[in-house]
Design goal:
Number of helices: 18
CATH topology of the largest domain: 60s Ribosomal Protein L30, Chain: A
Strand order of the largest sheet: 8-7-6-9-10-11-12
Number of domains: 3
CATH class of the largest domain: Alpha Beta
Radius of gyration: 26 Å
């Protein structure tokens, strides 16, 4: 950190600069050039704790070290924007920033190529045993037979998660003549054909791939995705790669299958706890590891610093923030009016994403009642962002949701209608897939909050939050009783239950709130009950 910059640029009695910007973590000087060379900018490079007066800064640039908390925001009343030179924003209190009217931006694609290249380097190193051979020869050995490797050509590469990074890896793998299997719930046939990959189910990727690399966000759904059960479905001799998020591969399960010889090798750049704590895992000869450096190249660090520097300048000059993580720039009055509907649509999108697990082509949003008096384009983007976030390997927000949807081959639109089905406001969303569709209706009631009032034509009334079970079944005596008994046997307590049906004895649904997350074994057991067609876990 350049302490001299603080001395030279710290708040003087009279300032001529138009914008005052604090860079509180070390960043590429070349990347900061848009700020450092701008005569309208007073750029201070210093840790926040070393600055006596933070009140006049318009913008704050951080990486991962600085914690942007409610307390810090209170010390910076003039702050308009926080820029994270990277992808993750775990060190920023987004709710507090939004409450204070501070826009948070990041650099979502500045390290895409860096991460993709590192992943491919790990694949090559693992299969050719390069780190082990390097250590051996530096130890004075010459043991060629010990380091016989495998060619990539002809090996099937399974990619779990097909966002920006997964797409770049696929391009490189094609040059190595590798067949490509991709698991991504949003991958349409048209996009797969265009890129030259084969869409597959997760089980197909697990059972047919020689090498598996994961590129999903870390969510409740993906934590431990490659655990004891799923790794057992892979080929004997499989290679596993994780340069995405620690925790997607369960480290205890990984050690188990390394020990029994089922896994031929693993390459890890990320870990469940960092710095890496599990020395037992790292001692395996067929495990290679790096200290979370997939994004650490000169080019990537320059790119992310330059991207946020340019974003900050554009924003301070009155242009919209293209990579906003929280709400777009709104007046306090507009924000307060739209917030309940914004939260509702975000929850609706998230719910739809979890139940609509096939590729999606179109999303329609209809508004009726007093919500039509507001700027519904914001709530529509909120719904799209809520839909995309659980399945995309990058932060999705209201501004970039449209671009990400387009990249995924998803079109969307909104329409104002007159029919509200008796509610003062109604939001109706329909998701169209390649072979099915799913629709829900929601409303906001001031006294009761956000509610979901219809699912696929079945009338319900529940709050879209907490641990939920969505069950489709036949309306026959005993089904609900057997369901309740099974949950009790698995120590799952029911908090609330909504039942909807169209006719006596016909199709019906249950929406159940439970006290804890229901695991896959319980879902499978529910589906084995006569007259239950499907059971989906939804985390609100």
């Amino acid at each position: 950190m350049n302490k001299q910059a603080l001395v030279e640029n710290e708040v003087p009695t009279e300032r001529t600069a138009k914008y005052h910007i604090l860079v509180s973590d070390s960043m590429s000087q070349e990347g900061l050039a848009p700020l450092l060379r701008n005569s309208d900018v007073n750029c201070v490079e210093s840790f926040v704790d070393d600055v006596d007066d933070l009140s006049s800064f318009d913008a704050l640039l951080v990486r991962s070290a600085t914690k942007v908390t409610e307390e810090l925001l209170l010390q910076m009343p003039n702050l308009k924007i926080v820029a994270r030179a990277g992808v993750g924003v775990d060190n920023i209190d987004l709710d507090a920033a939004t409450k204070h009217g501070v826009v948070v931006v990041n650099a979502p694609d500045g390290n895409t190529i860096s991460t993709a290249e590192h992943t491919f380097a790990m694949i090559c190193s693992l299969l050719r045993k390069i780190p082990q051979a390097n250590a051996s020869i530096k130890a004075g050995e010459w043991n060629r037979k010990a380091f016989q490797g495998s060619e990539l050509r002809g090996k099937t590469l399974g990619i779990v998660g097909f966002g920006r990074i997964g797409t770049q890896i696929a391009k490189r793998a094609r040059a190595f003549e590798m067949p490509l299997l991709v698991f991504d719930p949003f991958l349409t046939k048209a996009r797969a054909e265009k890129i030259g990959v084969t869409p597959a189910s997760l089980d197909e990727v697990l059972s047919e791939s020689d090498i598996i690399t994961v590129h999903t966000p870390l969510t409740k759904e993906t934590k431990g995705l490659l655990g004891m059960e799923n790794i057992s479905k892979t080929k004997k001799g499989v290679f596993l790669i994780n340069c995405a998020r620690g925790g997607i591969i369960d480290e205890e399960a990984l050690k188990h299958y390394l020990a029994n010889g089922h896994i031929a090798g693993a390459a890890l750049d990320v870990f469940e706890s960092e710095p890496a704590q599990d020395q037992e895992l790292l001692q395996y000869d067929n495990v290679i590891a790096t200290p979370h450096i997939a994004a650490s190249t000169k080019e990537a660090q320059l790119n992310v610093a330059a991207q946020v520097s340019e974003e900050v300048i554009r924003f301070l000059e009155g242009q919209p923030a293209t990579n906003s993580i929280n709400l777009p720039t709104l007046s306090k009055e507009v924000y307060e009016k739209i917030q309940p509907y914004y939260d509702l649509t975000k929850r609706m999108g998230n719910l739809l994403s979890q139940v609509m697990k096939t590729p999606v082509q179109e999303i329609e949003v209809f508004y009726g009642g007093n919500v039509t008096e507001l700027e519904t384009s914001i709530t529509t983007r909120s719904l799209i962002a809520g839909f995309l976030q659980p399945r995309v390997d990058a932060a999705v927000n209201d501004v970039n949701a449209a671009l990400i949807a387009k990249e995924r081959g998803i079109i969307y639109g909104e329409k104002h209608v007159s029919n509200t089905f008796g509610y003062s406001n109604l939001i109706h969303a329909i998701v169209h897939g390649e072979d099915r569709r799913f629709e829900i209706k929601g409303t906001y009631i001031k006294e009761y909050g956000a509610r979901i009032v219809s699912i696929n034509g079945f009338n319900v009334d529940f709050i879209p939050e907490g641990h939920l079970l969505y069950i489709q079944h036949n309306d026959k005596p005993g089904v609900i009783g057997r369901m309740g008994q099974l949950l009790a046997e698995h120590n799952v307590n029911i908090a609330t239950m909504q039942v909807g049906r169209t006719e006596v004895g016909g199709e019906a649904i249950m929406m159940i709130t439970v006290d804890k997350t229901v695991d896959d074994a319980v879902l499978q057991a529910l589906c084995s009950i006569d007259d239950i067609h499907s059971a989906n876990r939804i985390e609100g």
